[in-house]
Design a protein that fits this description.
This protein is an all-beta fold. It has one domain. About 0% of the residues lie in helices and about 50% in strands. The protein contains no helices and three strands. A three-stranded antiparallel beta sheet has the order 1-2-3, with no helix packed on it. It is elongated, with a radius of gyration of 12 Å. The termini are far apart.
Length: about 50
């Protein structure tokens, strides 16, 4: 079981995490387009939470 975000509603499935930068607040994933099976890179930005 993985804890990857679900991008299937956007047409992508995460394959694995490529890297993360805790200071910059971003995670980079290798993903696949569900329709074309082409590999893509997704960068997810994680901004500060309220009250943090």
């Amino acid at each position: 079981m993985n804890n990857y975000p679900n991008f299937s509603s956007d047409g992508y499935q995460i394959i694995r995490e490529l890297g993360h930068n805790n200071i910059g607040g971003r995670v980079t994933y290798l993903a696949e387009n569900i329709q074309t099976q082409k590999k893509v890179v997704i960068k997810q930005f994680q901004f500060a939470k309220l009250g943090a």
